[in-house]
Amino acid sequence: MTGNGPSGGGAQGLFYLRSEVARLQAAVKGLHSGYGRRDIASVKALIESAYRRDFEAAMRDRIHTVPLPDGTVLCRVLGRYKMYVDAEDTSLAPHLMLEGFWQYWITAFLCRNLDRGETAYDLDAGYGYYALLMSELVDAQGRVVALEYNPWLFQLLRRNLSLNGRDNIVVAHRVIAAGQAAAAKEMPVSLMGPPAVANQAVQFRRDSAASCIAPAMTLDGLEPGAADLVLVSATALEQNALRGMQGLMDRSPSLKIILDFRADRCANPREALDGLAARYPLRFIDHDGHAKPTTVEKILDQGSLSLFLSQIEPR
Q: Please, which pLDDT band fits residue 48 given cuts at 50, 70 and 90?
């Protein structure tokens, strides 16, 4: 049986796939001639000038990985950043090592909605993927605050910022973004790092489950002043980070929030969404990288969405 398009079988399907491969190869060749194989002018410029498939092809074309003795892998991300990732990580690291990017829709949305000179927060920054991208977008005139509570990931975050010369723009804190301040809080960790790394003393195991101890802070109490954008992970949502940033919302009329909403991370998801809807129009970031209107009911029905919350119209 034969068919049309990528799902078709037989000669027609094979012809389509060969044509698509040839088109992508031509697109990558064009990107090489436009930007040069050795470097990419900027992630923002590339996203603005290329279709999603072309952007993804260009990132994959520049993949390079180097395994290291300490259990990390050095890889090239977004065509320009050198990043250490944990070799045992089965969540984010495979995407960075084999594709060179993470969550195209958030990456593209950030490139359009974060500008030079602005202040951005990255909650649960991990290896620093978004913190590095934010630092490029805000440039030397702006500022990025990255929070990561896991001691091993925090060490890799700081190494990645230093390796790329971004530690003059990005301020890293080893704290949990929470609903209220606490001297210390026990948090689960899946990546422990090698047995003799710095900060290993603050990690411990209990009943075979990995845990770490970290201070908990509200964004309201972490730093004074306003912010332009806050990226909130599902873990930060679970720790009531939104409740701890009400003051930041009040003093930041132009604030833009990107929220990795997961209903299973909320004690009362409807109450949380109703509270957000009272402050901001509800929008979700679609896979094309653009924000579109939504409702509490639709979000609860989906269960998991990337939300955009702001009084500012997104670009």
A: confident
3-state secondary structure at position 49: helix
Query: What's the rounded Cα separation, in Å, for the pair 22 and 15?
Result: 11
Burial per residue of 296-310, b for 16 or more beta-carbon CB atoms within 10 angstroms, e otherwise: eeebeeeeebbbbbb
Q: What is the pTM of this model?
A: 0.83
Helices (H), 258-307: 269-279, 296-302
Dmax (CA) of the chain: 66
Cβ–Cβ < 8 Å for 69, 57: no
Rg for the chain, CA atoms, rounded: 21
Q: And the tokens for 257?
A: 């929030």
Residue type, 259: L
Torsion of CA 173, 177, 183, 187, to 10 degrees: -100
For 210, residues 6+ apart whose C-beta sits below 8 A from its C-beta are 188, 189, 190, 192, 203
Record the tokens describing residue 312, joined without a space.
Answer: 């500012």
Question: Residues 287, 281: contact at Cβ < 8 Å?
Answer: no
Positions of E strands within the chain: 65-67, 72-77, 81-86, 119-123, 143-147, 170-173, 176-177, 182-188, 203-206, 209-217, 229-232, 256-262, 282-285, 291-293, 304-310
